[in-house]
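Here we describe the complex-level prediction in full. Unlike the single-chain runs in Section 2.1, the two entities below were treated as one system.
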Amino acid sequence: MSKKILDIRELKREFQMGSETVRALKGISFEVEAGEFVTIMGSSGSGKTTLLNILGCLDKPSIGDYFLDGVDVKKLSRDELAQLRNRKIGFVFQAYNLLPRTSALENVELPLLYNREISVSERRERAIHALEAVKLAERLDHTPSQLSGGQQQRVAIARALVNEPVMILADEATGNLDSRTSYEIMSLMQELNSQQGKTIVFVTHEPDIASFSSRTIQLRDGRIQKDTPNANQRSAKEVLAGLPISDDY
Amino acid sequence: MNLFNLIRIAYKALQRNKLRAFLTMLGIIIGVASVIAMVAIGQGSKQSIHDQLSSMGSNMITVLPSSNLNGGVRIAGSSFQTLTQKDITALQKAQYITELSPSITSKGQAINGALNWPTTIQGVSPDYLDIRKLSLKDGIAFTEQDVLTSAKVCLIGQTVIDNLFPNGENPIGKVIRFNKIPFQIIGILNPKGQNAFGQDQDDILIAPYTTIQKRILATIYYQNIYASAANEQVTDAAVSEMTQILRDSHRLRDSEDNDFTVRTQAELINTLSSTSGLLTVLLTVIAGISLVIGGIGIMNIMYVSVTERTREIGLRMSIGARGKDIMLQFLMEAILISITGGIIGVILGIVSSNLVTLTLSWPTIVSESSVMLSFVVCAITGIFFGYYPAQKAARLDPIEALRYE
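The structure predicted for the assembly as a whole is:
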């Protein structure tokens, strides 16, 4: 029995730029069920970023409804939104956004610091567990400057996992990485999705990356142009195995 | 978010930039240390003045002749001759006074063989030694009997000994001459050193007042009357009692002004204390200004820090920090800086106060109140100057903060 994680109905978002009204989203409806791996695609100006901000509860829709895991986001205050982000969403950013000069473990612990129900020992335990899940158990004490780009992004994914969110929201998470590392990250994402049943919403403009997901939503000019399940989902692991090993000489 | 987490987050953030945190702290450290050291020096000098005056006898009361209106012309007090034996007799009945001594002085040349030294001879009663807290190093004091017989005996101060007996002989029993009158030395005064005004208190001869009156000055008047109140608390009562007795003795009518002045050491202590109190206030104000400058330093750095860490703020907000959490984090950073600076400043202030005492031998007193006060001011400085930058951080829009370059 699947559960609706995202439920978006006739969602519109308008911005007031001086006297002009910019309509970034012009009525979007879709649902995402638990365990789906959705990519949202679109060229720049398609409303992709606006949608992402709303999905991430950083912004609220002007018109329309957004239910995240059954919670009506529109009714929440600024502080309640912060708490919702803390409990239900795991963010992965293009630029990793790790705290400099801070160990991987402490970076991963960060979201739990804002959750008063979690004790110091539990916080540490969960952070170590999350880093194990992204295969960085050996690098707990490394600071971001001591890690490669791919490793930094894996720390960021661990940070997104640590609060056990209902959805991982990735914003161009492979945008700063070379193709081999991108595939590694996608392989990790697929693993989290298939083995741990994590719901993933992945925003990208690369069709190559989108082919690893189970469903693609194509945005154009503030509307959904195409919403299709991915019939032949590629396995990132296999693609990775197929790459020539001589890449790193 | 609980307090422990908050302190932890703020501490980690400061730790990422140790040197900057320390330099920001430096303003507070210097401010607090200077407040404590300055107040300690001020308090120390105040206390030492007080002690010095107490050693002169803090319950001492002095009566001086003073100017009185005489046919419309005021005449200087010192040329007035109003204090006589009649006043002494009357004052002996006063209940708040335990000791009483007239005083009369004469300047002249003290001669011992070929050596001579210009000094002052003071004629007093045997009570005088107690009133002024003087004591003898050797020999004996003169008695009431010596006063009655106008005996030619004297007590000698150290400075006079040094000049008349330079070879270290024992002056007791020796006879010296003062203005041609021979005096036998019967006692040596303990050295008192200089008084608060730099006067040498050991350059003196002390003899029975009758001897000076009759044998040297040929006068019936006294220049001063010294008295001791029973204790410091009844000094005021003693003053009014003495004033009334002297007015009666001088037969002054109600409409007439006093032809004498009664002074207490308390007045002197108050005058000097208020002078050095003013000094303390001045020093404290200067030190307080440096504390404010330290606070502005904190504010400046916190603003820079908020701008520089905009992305971090955006990230923290996106993973669930509320505006309040961000605000408290930056406020806590400012408070940590100011309180840590305060603690270091207090230690530095105490150490440097002791160093001043040790090297310059200035008396210093580190008062608890100055430590408490500067510490409280520190915490308030942190909150006050940290508030606006923290509020700026809390009001950032997470979407824009995340994109900030």
